[in-house]
Amino acid sequence: MARKLEGTVALVTGASSGIGEATALALAAEGAHVALAARRRDRLEALAERIGALDVKALVLEADITQPADARDAVEKTASEFGRLDIVVNNAGVMLLGPVVGADPGEWQRMVDLNVNALLHVSLAALPHLLNAAQSEPRRVADLINISSTAGRTARAMSGVYNLTKFGIGAFSESLRQEVTKRHVRVALVEPGATSTELLGQNRPAVQEMLRSRLGELERLESADIANAIVYVVTQPRHVAINEILIRPTEQEY
Ligand SMILES: NC(=O)c1ccc[n+]([C@@H]2O[C@H](COP(=O)([O-])OP(=O)(O)OC[C@H]3O[C@@H](n4cnc5c(N)ncnc54)[C@H](OP(=O)(O)O)[C@@H]3O)[C@@H](O)[C@H]2O)c1
Questions:
Q1: 235, exposed or middle or buried, with CB in 10 Å at 0-12, 13-18, 19+?
Q2: I want to staple 96 with a disulfide (CB 3.0 to 4.6 A). Which of 37, 57, 107, 226 is the partner?
Q3: Opening angle at CA 217, ends 214 and 220, nearest 5
Q4: Is residue 146 very low, low, confident or very high in pLDDT (cuts 50, 70, 90)?
Q5: In this predicted structure, what is the pLDDT of residue 180?
Q6: What is the DSSP string of 146-200?
Q7: Phi/psi at 207 (nearest 5 deg)?
Q8: Entry pTM
Q9: pLDDT-derived band of residue 177, with 50, 70 and 90 as boundaries?
Q10: What is the Cα–Cα distance from 175 to 170, expressed in whole angstroms?
């Protein structure tokens, strides 16, 4: 059976672990050539090897996308290597939780730099390519997927600045969607709940402990569960735009 993304090119940020890694694999399994952006080159190279076995090409892009030049270069190298860009998954993100009172502003800066500013710079560079791809075969439609969170819909104590970044992505995505949807660039927001990845491990030990007790024994989502949703979004027919998907573990209340 023909794969649904045959002849297309995708760029996934934060492809070296978790949701980004699973998404790159899932897009490749549907026939897309995939560019993999993150800082850990060794992880990207190992993933590229797995993707190569799926009979598509993978491009390793070692990039710190909080640097606007790296964000722009990641997009331009993808487009020049593969000749087009059909799908961008703005996935790279960091979640550093804790009380606002006495917070480390350096942690706030890291979240704003990556969750907001890097996503903006990647999107800015990618949009001309996505608009072009939307004019051409094989699909005559293109996709920009922004990974938000349940934290982009519900604010909770200890999560103020992470909430701020993810709520912000939601607003930006809807505004951009209205700008480009008539030109067949679909903008979608994907909002995962608790997913088993390396994300929590970036937090200070006391915060990790707080999160573990907040979540309890909850059966978390797997990265592949989110990747499946992303594949669902980008494999819809041209006239169907899935604008937003909220996916929680069944046992997650908030
Ligand atoms: N896990 C969850 O429960 C959950 C829930 C809701 C939403 N999300 C969202 O899902 C997205 C992916 O997170 P994850 O859970 O898969 O966590 P993860 O395993 O920690 O993945 C984060 C990715 O971001 C990359 N990254 C970090 N800083 C970067 C930088 N400066 N430049 C380029 N890449 C960078 C990391 O790669 P390098 O370190 O190699 O650069 C890594 O590939 C995030 O936006 C997160 O907010 C996760």
A1: middle
A2: 107
A3: 90
A4: very high
A5: 98
A6: EE--GGGT---TT-HHHHHHHHHHHHHHHHHHHHHGGGTEEEEEEEE-SB-SSGG
A7: -70, -40
A8: 0.98
A9: very high
A10: 9
* H helices present in 53-136, as ranges: 68-82, 105-111, 119-133
Count of residues for the chain? Answer: 254
Distance CA 5, CA 10 (A): 9
Output the ligand 1 site: residues, CB below 6 A.
13-20, 37-40, 43, 63-66, 91-95, 114, 147, 149, 192, 194-195, 197-199
Q: Which residue has the tokens 């023909």?
A: 2
**Phi, psi (degrees; rounded to nearest 5) at 21:** -60, -45
pLDDT tops 90 at residue 212: no
Burial 181-217 (b: 16+ CB within 10 A, else e): eeebbbbbbbbbbbbebebbeebeeebeebbeeeeee
Give the span between the Cα atoms of 130 and 143, in whole angstroms: 7
Cβ atoms of 225 and 46 closer than 8 Å: no
**pLDDT, mean of residues 85-110:** 97
The share of the chain scoring above pLDDT 90, in percent, equals: 95
Residue of 84, 32, 41 lying closest to 61 (CA atoms): 41
Average pLDDT, the chain: 97
Instruction: Name the residue of 25, 34, 47, 91 to mutate for ligand 1: max ligand atoms within 8 A of Cβ.
Output: 91
